[in-house]
Write a structure and sequence with these properties.
Helix content: under 10%
Radius of gyration: 13 Å
Number of helices: 0
Largest sheet: 4 strands, antiparallel
Structural class: mainly beta
Shape: globular
Strand content: over 45%
Length: 86
């Protein structure tokens, strides 16, 4: 994921379930269990730094990632209010 404001959209199988959020070689990544043969849908995710405003509505918390020996802390959410099938 990019460390930027606003939603980040990923095309994923419709029933994909995010199971982990971690740092991989300095990049915030998430992993999902899915059936790659399923119909795809666009899903929106947000990343917020500790101390930044996080909206109260429509977000599902997925995990927290620490980088730079804990000096940077990121919180990853899925936006449940948006998405479309492709």
């Amino acid at each position: 994921m990019k460390l930027e404001d606003g939603p980040q959209t990923f095309l994923m199988p419709i029933s994909a379930r995010v199971v982990a959020v971690q740092d991989q070689y300095g990049v915030v990544c998430f992993w999902a269990l899915c059936n790659p043969e399923e119909k795809q849908t666009e899903r929106n995710f947000h990343i917020f730094g500790t101390g930044h405003h996080i909206p109260n509505a429509g977000l599902k918390y997925l995990g927290t990632v620490q980088q730079m020996e804990g000096r940077l802390v990121w919180h990853v959410f899925e936006d449940l209010g948006h998405g479309s099938t492709a």
